[in-house]
Fold these 4 entries.
Entry 1:
Amino acid sequence: EDHNLRTNTASTVKYDNPPIIEAIFEVYFPVSNKWDAHKEKLYKSLRSLKFDFDKDETINLQRLSVNIQGGKPVSTQQSVPVPRVRCWNKDRSLMFQYGQDMLAVNVLPVYESIEIYLPLLKDVCDIVLSTLSVKSINNLGQRFINEIKATTAMTPEKIFAIYPRLPDQVRSKHPSFALQVETTRDTSKSVALNLEYRGDQAENHKYLLDIYLRSLMFSSAKTDDIIAWMVNEHSCVVDTFEAALTKEGQKFCGKRD
């Protein structure tokens, strides 16, 4: 068994039907000048992977920068469109995407465990980084978006350990809110947690618990180093998710005894 594809404490925390609606494992690197010359070769190489291919789509992303002076926008500038190719599997539960400055694996329900998806990430990394002659990495990331639907009887204070304290007259109206907390920062990574109330849905209150782990000072473009970082730092995501919930909230989200 490849020890590089094993997690540590993260594997010991198990949830039945976890509330994850999307998990993203991402790699960003400097824009490659090899894209135009090798994009067809890259596409053919990736299509050779053992992946249940269905639909491919190419989107063009544009970034908008706004210059603000005196609290007012004075000018805007659009970047040159950046192409992203997205490859879906047949049941739309798994996708990998790539472009001239990034690659990622996106997991939609039902999420199982990180060990299941790292082999695909490793294969995509091997092909994209070598074909585009990537020499360094800007940053790595793991993002886990959880959707938690709670009945009216299950108040947010019972679920979330970080739910903001609100006056009784305000809390009874259950206003919308968004709370962002940086839970971890050291020399190698930062972890940000976002908790957002998304309003009512049928008889339920809907919350998004979004956890984003991002590398700091990581530059190696070797696939083994990238996978090792994903494995070694993943427990930070699990620890943050656990810390955001009360014991009752963990049970409500399906944690096994």
Entry 2:
Amino acid sequence: NHVKIRLMSKRVLYQWVGTEHMESFSSRCVLINRVLGMKELDYEVIKAKIPTDTSYLEKEFKNLHTKWHFVVLQMLEEKISGRDEILRTLDSRYPVPQLISSNDLERAKQELYFEWAWDTLFWHCSYARWMDQENKNTLSEQILEGWNEEDRKKADGIVFPSISNFYKGRRVSEHPVSAVKEKLETMFEMLNGILEETGYFGGSKFGLSDLSIFSILLSIVSVDVRVKMLLKKNERLAQWFISIDYESQTAHTKLFKL
């Protein structure tokens, strides 16, 4: 049986709210959670509801982030802000398991997959998630579940329209959502082929590039049934997705049923 022994320490992760299967609606926050999970580190989570609501955040955090990409990890008295700085800190202080290969060729491949994931894959998944009206409605209901009426109105009137307008300005905006989803289908087939040949994205085991791709894919398959079926159609990719979800699982979310 697979039993995880947690290393106890005082860590607090400040991030945006999520759902029961997705630690945060921000893929960057999901990635930090999954790195902590893969390294078997215990931590607490304090969630800010929406970018216009700072009532959950200590005042000194307000100047440490851009509001849409907010994520702060506090370890004892030290506060570390931003995805990349948190990742560097965690990997240097907790090197087991190693998420970046020590092999030069493998590390170079991992870096390429990492950059591609947060550039191309991220923007296509985000655009399909927020610019598809049905997906946006599903995600809004997931995020707003249990909120009071005042906060719901604030999110519906300010936050969600701001997010949509943000993605309208990106380079995929000239394409209809249907075309973006067709591109995702091609990307899934490509990822499936890579996994059939190598098993992982760049390394010889799960690494930072794998966790990045997973965190981004989780954001779209959790709200879009059609995209979820496209992923399931690629058997090796689906197996990889289920496996990494289990291996990086934290106490703050449930396994996603693909």
Entry 3:
Amino acid sequence: TDTSIVDIDEEQKKLDKLLTEKESMEKKIDIIHKEIAELETKHLEVEDTLDEWDGEKLETQYSEFLSLSKAKYELNEKITTQTEIRKTLQDQKQHLDGHKYDENCDICMENSKSIRSQKEEVNNKLEQIHIQINTYDSNLIEINEKITKLGDIKTLWNEYKETKERYNKISQNLDNRVSKLLGGDNELEKLKAQIQNKNKDIETYYENENTIKKNEEVKQKINTIKTQINSDRNKLNQKNNQALKLNGTISSTQNQI
């Protein structure tokens, strides 16, 4: 830095500003260190909780639970549908069973053959539906037994999932704080370097203060001399002009004589 053009008051203001920024940055870094310490403690606590679970096993069991629940829902839908069909067929059977006919009437007997055929068809359908519903019921019992063996897997999975999400969130916050800390450290180093350079500038100024003052005095003397020279030059020019006028007057007078 050219100390001859240094404004020491301005430089001191810049130094004070840098020192204030440094102090502020150090406080921010201290806060970040505390936040990191707290997050690391929480991180370890949640990590210990996660270690108590077998995540892969829970995920497999929960996937099985979802599959069984879907199958159970579909079976219940089928049972409902078959039950409604059975009810319709039972109503038809009841209607056919209530049909009366005269055995001595040929036409009536002919009609009764059609009715018996319908009754047989209805009975066959009812038997098939009965078998189908029994099969569904057996499958449903088997599914319920499997779901029971899984225990309260839904609650366990939700707890595990929430804990894992909390762990991931803490990890993300921790990474952000560490990144912020690195940025703060870099900024602090820059401020320290700027303060060091500014201190050197101020120290250099005071070390060369006498030289600076002498330079100023020399400049003032030079300016004074320049001013004097200019003044003398002006006076000389005035005298020359006066001499020229006087010579002109003398020559004019001689010519007249």
Entry 4:
Amino acid sequence: DYFVDDRANGTTENSIQDPKDTNLLEQFQQDEQTYALTLFSLGHKLALDKCKYYIAAYKRDNIRHRHMSIQEYPGEVRIRDSFDGEPVMIKRLEPNQSHESLGCLIAISGEMLEQFETLQDKVHDWRNRIVVSTLTGSEGLTAYEAYLKEAMRYVLPTSSLSQARCQELDVIIAPILLNAVSTHRNCSRVILYTPSKVGGFGILNIWHLQGGEKIKFFMLHYRRHDTTGQLLKISLRWLQLEAGTEVPFYKLPYREIEVLLT
């Protein structure tokens, strides 16, 4: 039987054992082949048809860096799943091509189109079910809070949806929520998103929901000092180095320094 443990391996240029005779792809292939044969020797077998990989190689266009495509940085990786098996070419993904990991669609370039379309389909399906149902207003709110909101909260910490895309989702959801609180469906959405202490209904729009989930995710792992927290700290230090400013980059207007950051 195949055995897959969702392990993610990575190889960087500074981990190449013999830089004179081995390039990055060759070192990566050696690392992955060792892992595949180790699994096989323990009675397991790597499912090569499920394996995928990216190459994060950057190219500067004017000021900003961008990920190089497969055409710009060609190469392939072939791995055997057993000692006597035939080498199989592993699928390589473009930097902007998403892969699914624990229900989230992620691309190393930060492209969120596929994740957005998946969320959009989920929101449309929820709305259509609510429209043809006989739920009361309070039950409709419960359906949003217990199902749709929680489904979105699961993926939003790892997503980077733009404000415009978040508003596209809000446009689908808002009429249902306005109807649930006994307000005309064409009424301004401001009343939904205004805090209850000043007369609104205190419902977070998708943009704010995403921001809140990201802050929770960041603070949770940063304070735990776990593996994810360590990666976040490395990323922060790298961003500071890229920005090249004497003050912390997070104290500067993002719109002014974003062109300096990858």
